[in-house]
Amino acid sequence: MATFGERLRQLRIENNIKVKDLSNEMSITEIAWRYYETDKREPNLNVMRFICKRFNVSADYFLGLSDERTHLKAN
Where are the domains of the chain? Predict the structure, then answer.
């Protein structure tokens, strides 16, 4: 089973988004983002919300509770 960081990196690459762009959107350093992708740091709840919304994928996918990329439902 893929880790949080592996799934995060895969989605970023599939969407052709640069680490620099995502880190700027979140107002964090590129190093902080890389730490998420390499499983050196776990995101807090606010970061997790951003990631789920940004990639339109449920938290269950990132947390390894599901291997399906269940898309978020519109509010």
Answer: 4-62
Sign of CA dihedral 11, 56, 69, 46: positive
| Residues 71/56, Cβ–Cβ less than 8 Å | yes
Q: What is the pLDDT of residues 21-44, one digit of tens each?
A: 999 999 999 999 999 999 999 999
Q: Single out the residue of 45, 46, 18 nearest to residue 33, CA to CA.
A: 18
Nearest to 6 by CA among 70, 61, 71: 61
What pTM was computed for the model? 0.87
How many C-beta atoms surround the C-beta of residue 65 within 10 A? 11
What is the assigned CATH class of domain 4-62? mainly alpha
- Report d(CA 24, CA 57) in Å as an integer: 20
- 63, two tokens: 């947390």
